[in-house]
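Example record used in the benchmark description.
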Amino acid sequence: GHLETLEALLEKGASPNAEKPADLRPLESCMQWMDTHPNGKEIFDTLLKRGADVHQVADDNTTLVMMAAALDADYALKALLKSKAAIGGVTTNGHTALTVAARNNSGKAVKLLLEAGADVTHVTPEGRMASQEAAIAATCPGARFTDPHDAAVAVLAQGLLDLKILNRIQYASA
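Model output (structure tokens):
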């Protein structure tokens, strides 16, 4: 299968960082289909174990962490964060992994990024912070009236706890 093929190629010296057409490196490519492929997570882990560069940056400064946030790829995001991938990058259009996750309404990614220390105060060129991106993303047909408020508060509250503006013991949920 695919996993065995990958392991054989890597064993013979293939690079886990080799570029392929359209500038998709193996980790980037794997993130796009890992949830639908039976061995996707194992292939991703194998690439990481074999030295795939978690600090790869695209021409527009998009990082793998940003891509995982944009794809709502929680498994990949957790693995990248565990591998010490940087979370503080800013794309050429002014977005961070946190603003991307908030814009895509990915609550799990937002939570993971905030727990890893993402900057909740970053302002995009449009003048919005992640909490505002979350509120905008939650404003859609069929949403409850309170959904945008709840989305913004969730991002802000976690940020306030992470920045130690609020006492985690007093306000954090179990």
